[in-house]
């Protein structure tokens, strides 16, 4: 994976505010930024389930090479920390 990597949520928030991409940050850590409209929630739709991440891509961008690379990287990272094999395949499709 190329590009910058950040270890602190505050650094992720700053990067997102400077149009460097999206950030996965718990909303309670960026309340001020949300109230001041310096950051927005990319997707307000909530999906059921706990301990899960969902990657949602607009249909018009499904063929995007950069989003495909990100999706593949995300799946590989999830596999690194996967559940026992018999359970993991249902989550990593």
Number of helices: 4
| Count of spatially separate domains | 2
Which regions are unreliable across 5 or more consecutive residues at pLDDT < 50? none
Largest sheet: none
Give the topology string: H per helix, E per strand. HHHH
How many strands?
Answer: 0
Briefly note the structural class of the backbone: mainly alpha
What level of helicity do the residues show? 25-40%
End-to-end distance: 20 Å
- Strand composition percent: under 5%
Structural shape: globular
Mean pLDDT across residues: 80
Radius of gyration, taken over Cα atoms and rounded to an integer in Å: 15 Å
Mind explaining what this structure looks like?
- With 93 residues, the protein is an all-alpha fold.
- The protein has two domains: 1-42, no CATH class; 44-93, no CATH class.
- Helices cover 37% and strands 0% of the residues.
- The protein is built from four helices and no strands.
- It has helices at residues 9-17, 31-35, 65-80, 85-88.
- The longest helix is centred in the last third of the chain and has 16 residues, at 65-80.
Describe the structure in brief.
This protein has 93 residues and is mostly helical.
What key attributes describe this structure?
single chain; 93 residues; mainly alpha; 37% helix; LysR family transcriptional regulator; DNA-binding transcription factor activity; LysR-type_TF_proteobact-type; sequence-specific DNA binding
């Amino acid at each position: 994976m190329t590009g910058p990597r950040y270890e602190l949520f505050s650094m992720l928030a700053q990067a997102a505010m400077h149009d460097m991409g999206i950030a996965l940050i718990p909303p309670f850590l960026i309340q001020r930024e949300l109230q001041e409209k310096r950051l927005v929630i990319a997707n307000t739709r909530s999906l059921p389930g706990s301990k899960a991440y969902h990657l949602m891509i607009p249909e018009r961008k499904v063929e995007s090479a950069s989003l495909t690379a990100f999706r593949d990287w995300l799946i590989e990272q999830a596999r690194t920390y996967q559940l026992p094999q018999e359970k993991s395949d249902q989550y990593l499709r």
